[in-house]
Amino acid sequence: MKEFLFPENLNIIEQIGLYTLYISAIVQFIFLWVIFLRFAFFTKKAKANADNQEAVSVIVVAKNEHYNLKINLPKLLEQDYPNFEVILVNHASEDDTEYLIHELMQKYPHLQYVKVQDDINFFAGKKFPLSVGIKSAKNDLLLLTDADCYPASDQWIAEMQSCFDTNKEIVLGYGAYEENPGLLNKIIRYDSLRVGMLYLSLARWGMAYMGVGRNLAYRRSLFFRKNGFQAHLHIPSGDDDLFINTASTLKNTNIAIGESCRTVSSTKSTYSDWYYQKKRHLTTGKHYKAIHLMILGLWDLSTIIFFLSAILLLFLQINIWFIAAIIGLRIISQLVLTKKSMLLLGEKKLLLFSPLLELFILIANPIISVLNIFIKQRKW
Questions:
Q1: pLDDT band for position 46 (50/70/90)?
Q2: Numbers of helices and strands, H then E, in the chain
Q3: Per-residue pLDDT tens for 32-44?
Q4: Domains plus CATH for the chain?
């Protein structure tokens, strides 16, 4: 067996390549068969408890989002839930947002309106206006989403609320993107799926490191107990993931999975817009806790090293069939787990493209991270 795994008469480069492949393969299979497996085969569905439906405050921060609010806000206001308010925080919009909100308030008495002027927002980004919205909320249970998002069903509030109990103060949901034709749409949706698989899987293991502001819930009391965004107020982004990275513990976080639990957003229409969105997310990620950075880096780095070393060994014709079998097992494992995760998260038509999309993202992420050093970030 030893002679098969480590053939004799290998030079130093071939030996390093072989050891590198085996170590990276072990890391990859731990992620796939242990960390991701617990989420991919997640069976517990969020179920609304009609006898214990706590009052909810839904908060949306908007800046020049008149078009999206006109389409999406009624879907929030018409949720099938007995006791909730929707707080719209208008962050110095220059479009017709204010007129739209006043019009909707005539029809929906549970719509609350807060206006924030740009000149009193001392920090870039949406943390200040979101803090104002949280302070204005009358309920302890907060449910956050974005102006360009809409809930996939009228049971969204009920399902998210049902995931709270006496020990759970944070509930992480999944934010999907609309399915449209084109390669960019597939890249965006697969990237969202890939990120979702990571943060939801780690949350299942008590290591929640982020959430997405498109679909996120936590208690108002927790927000104030953690001093809100004070620890990272100087960072323009991170109103969602950095707060969760700070506030989440081993036992206080739950996940909400199912078609009725998710939100759906419109996708970016140009590669430039997607680049700036991705740039903002990667800029924020470097501020995660060291343990989370190590885990995330280990997954991406081991993936890159695995395939590079495998290609090298195949080129050198070392244990060709055995190396090919390891590659095949690794790809099949990821395809199975990706398919199971897609079913849980309501994603479609991505599986066949997933290996190529994975390769693209593994190449794009380091490039964008390097460009972050030289190109200044946009504000909102």
A1: very low
A2: 14, 10
A3: 999 999 999 987 6
A4: 2-41+291-374 (no CATH), 56-277 (3.90.550.10)
